[in-house]
Amino acid sequence: xxxxxLISPFKAENRPGRLVLLGxxxxxxxxxxxxxIFKSYSSLIMVFLTVMxxxxxxxxxxxxxxxxxxxxxxxxxLLKEHxxxxxxxxxxxxxxxxxxxxxxxxxxxxxxxxxFETQTVTIQNINPHITGQISGxxxxxxxxxxxxxxxxxxxxxxxxxxxxxxxxxxxxxxSVIGAAIGNFIRSNLAYYSSLVGFEKTAQYFxxxxxxxxxxIIHGIPEILxxxxxxxxxxxxxxxxxxxxxxxxxxxxxxxxxxxxxLLSIFLLFIAGxxxxxxxxxxx
Length: 283
What we know:
By secondary structure, this protein is mainly alpha-helical. It has one domain. About 2% of the residues have low confidence.
């Protein structure tokens, strides 16, 4: 109960910058514990340990957002209030991803290959689909959009069934993105080290190059959409636990959650447009 008690939901919403540091601490502690105790399975254990630390904060924040729904305020006011929680969630996500980037870069290659083994396999599986030039056509957009909708549905279901279950999907994505960016940095450090004659340093950083850093452009609205959907599912879950089901206030909660889900679909639509038509132009 130590790590999860470092900050309250109210402070998290009003000072989201602290959540970056908190996410970094959660992930870093999970990484070293997983390497120390479960090294062979550390690529997955560190995700679970990070999720365990995040769940109390996310669940209490979702409970606080559900209480706002019971105040019979307008939808515009509610969305503005929910935006504070979403900013806090995004800050936590970036902190986790930043931790993965740092430790991917500085740890020895042997440790990195074990710590991010599953993440690297995932990146290599999706790499053939995204490293080539994506043609700006409707079929590519539809395929990407529908795949993202499937992930969004999982976020809603996980949050509905487990309260703040979507944090598992989002922490996993943070570890994959962190590994991809860390690999990008590590590969370039190895390249430039070899150019100036530091062969040993180059060998330390040498690893298969996976250039996914350019996908951060569409990744931000995409991850935000998943958080919005997770918040919607979590609010409904908390409302049912509190026995608000069947009341007039529950109808208001459903309306608010529906607005959040529509907002998340819109964000995925924007992310799909960026991925298909904007990213290939810039890179």
